[in-house]
Design a protein that fits this description.
- This protein is α/β, with parallel strands linked by helices.
- It has a single domain (3-237), classed as Spore Coat Polysaccharide Biosynthesis Protein SpsA, Chain A.
- Helices cover 41% and strands 20% of the residues.
- The chain has 11 helices and 11 strands.
- The chain has helices at residues 3-8, 21-36, 53-60, 75-83, 104-114, 144-147, 152-156, 161-167, 208-218, 243-261, 266-289; strands at residues 11-17, 40-47, 65-69, 90-94, 98-100, 118-126, 136-137, 177-178, 181-182, 186-190, 222-233.
- The strands form 2 sheets. Strands 1, 2, 3, 4, 5, 6, 8, 10 and 11 form a 9-stranded mixed sheet that branches. A two-stranded antiparallel sheet has the order 7-9.
- Helix 10 (243-261) runs antiparallel to helix 11.
- The longest helix has 24 residues, at 266-289.
- The chain is globular, with a radius of gyration of 19 Å.
- The protein starts with a helix and ends in a 6-residue tail after the last helix.
- The model is unreliable at 286-295 (pLDDT under 50).
Amino acid sequence: MSETMRERARCTVVVLSYNARAYLEPCLESLEADRQAGRARVVVVDNGSRDGSAALVRGRFPGVELLELPRNVGFSAGNNAALARCESEYALLLNPDTEARAGAIQRLVAFMDETPRCAVVGPRLVNPDGSRQLSCRSFPGYKTAFFNRYSLLTRWFPENRHSRDYLMSSLEATEPMEVDWVSGAAMMVRRGHGRSGSLDERFFMYAEDVDWCYRFKAAGWEVWYEPRAEILHHIGGSSASLPVRSLLERHRSRYYFNRKHYSRGVPILDLMVAVGVLVRLLVHLPGARRGRSAP
């Protein structure tokens, strides 16, 4: 991108990638129209990949900026490295296993322009078959340890009220609505909010999006879900190379989030998280040893 186009782009798209070359190419292809039109600056942060992802970007997408990190520093630190260089009004964080639908970035930018109190907005995330993903939710609480998206109770009893309330699975929104938090797989943020404007790097992966939205809302900002902007998400694709670590980090991050934001009843939450880790490991590890990805 030329300096003139770079200055004109109101949105910087940050794609953090770790050994996700197979997904990265279609992701970047989906951003080319916006990049070439000067509507978006695209930055790929290669988080110490060993699968040739950086070479792919250099060879196939010379107009995309590449930031190569020597090792995998995690989701928060990797994105912060790009956000520190962000000169645009808005930044769109994308997983490499996403593909932006036509007009999605423009729709998100327009929404931010129309909603000056909005600090974070998330699009409608869809599966390859077009079905909606549960990409906006309520903040976690005591019951979340048993009724989250990955819990056995949710899998066994998907229609139970506690899971549906937390996951907002009954939501059929066609218009924007204010929510607690949106998925970090695709989230646009307004730049320039001091400490709330960067991710907490103590979250290596998972729950950093919840924490970020929590801090923005605590500072008086709003978080919104914009279903008119649509992005395809091959859920789990960006973490498939680290199945067991992903599982452990998910629970470690939940533990840290509880410690950071909930001062009352933390021992109970700690116990719930510990039980969740044990159950998930017992269910997951046999499959992982046979080469299957996490359920």
